[in-house]
Amino acid sequence: MKETYDVIIIGGGPAGLNAAMILGRSRRKVLLFDSGEPRNRWSRSMNGFLSSDGVNPGDFIRKGREELKKYNIQIIDHPVGTATYSKGTYVVESSEGHVYHSRKLLLATGLKDKLPEVEGIEELYGQSVHHCPYCDGWESRDKAIAVYGKDRNGIGQALAMKNWSDDVTLYTDGTRKLNNKDIELLDLNGVKVCTDAIARVEGSDGMLEHIVLRNGQSRPQGALFFSGETRQQSDIGEQLGCEFTGKGVIKTRRLQQANIPGLYVAGDAARDMQLVIVAAAEGAKAGVAINMELQQEDRVKP
Ligand SMILES: Cc1cc2nc3c(=O)[nH]c(=O)nc-3n(C[C@H](O)[C@H](O)[C@H](O)COP(=O)(O)OP(=O)(O)OC[C@H]3O[C@@H](n4cnc5c(N)ncnc54)[C@H](O)[C@@H]3O)c2cc1C
């Protein structure tokens, strides 16, 4: 008979690791799977996390894993391929084909980002090309900030970036869908607009230096922000029949419960703000809720 874990956690980013810590400290038998691709791995520094502001994201994960060593947590560094639920048991199969059982399941598998299709952008991503001003706005303060958004998609972010710099230019990359009201609003708020098509971005050591237009013009820029599309990093939520919001994140209740018994979702994969500290907090909430559910199930009643 195969042993059954109290909880299997899929995903070892901040959400999964913090859940593991709470559950380990609750003396639960935990198995955590991780495929080692946290969303912010492109970045050199993780910002906005009190006491860890500016820490390297890889160091943050390594320290977290080190701290888990004293608890009863088994970690397998492989992706999970499939997960199913039947009659109170989750059955999880790793990519190597091994099968594991648990009473509860936590998905902390995160999201992945779609970058704008511009030559050279990938080399600069996470260093001087960003999507989140709360993560990287401070480091880009007072620079010549470019905002990338086709059609009318960049208006909100361009206006928001004025918070961090007086020098903001919205690039619509060859699209001309801004109407007169948009242009007036951007102009009144001191946002410059460039509708010419972009050929490539150029920089060195991760730092953006120029945006080169198809017309040959080269414009000096110190940072670029975009608001791009995201997708679930794993399809396990879909496999299990989770409910999703229109934005592609999994619907959860107050303590991270999903719509399937015993299933919890924490971090970026679930709705709510996408920050490391929020992901970790959601992991902690899910950990407490899972432990309380197990306590209720196991309590001997008169
Ligand atoms: C470039 C960039 C910079 C950022 N900078 C900041 C910042 O400075 N400050 C901040 O607060 N936020 C920042 N963020 C946001 C931050 O990365 C996320 O909010 C945070 O990582 C979410 O944590 P998570 O645990 O939900 O997911 P993740 O950190 O993405 O971790 C998910 C984990 O699950 C694993 N996984 C996925 N599928 C499977 C599977 N099937 N089997 C096993 N494992 C699986 C992945 O490999 C990964 O390790 C940044 C994001 C990006 C893209």
Which ranges are low-confidence, i.e. pLDDT below 50, for 5 or more consecutive residues?
A: none
**What percent of the residues sit in helical stretches (DSSP H or I)?**
10-25%
Shape, principal axes of CA atoms: elongated
- Helix count equals 8
Number of domains: 2
Termini separation? 30 Å
Bound molecules: flavin-adenine dinucleotide
Number of beta strands: 17
How big is the Rg? 22 Å
How would you describe the overall organization of this protein?
The chain folds into two domains: 4-113 and 229-298, FAD/NAD(P)-binding domain; 121-226, 3-Layer(bba) Sandwich (FAD/NAD(P)-binding domain). The mean pLDDT is 97. The chain is an alpha/beta fold and 302 residues long. The chain has helices at 14-25, 57-67, 121-124, 133-136, 155-161, 180-188, 236-240, 276-298, and strands at 4-10, 30-33, 73-76, 80-86, 89-94, 99-107, 111-113, 129-130, 145-148, 168-171, 191-194, 198-204, 207-213, 218-220, 223-226, 230-232, 263-265. The protein starts with a strand and ends with a helix. It is 25% helix and 27% strand. α1 runs parallel beside α2 (57-67). The structure holds flavin-adenine dinucleotide. The site of flavin-adenine dinucleotide (FAD) has 41 residues, from α1 and α8.
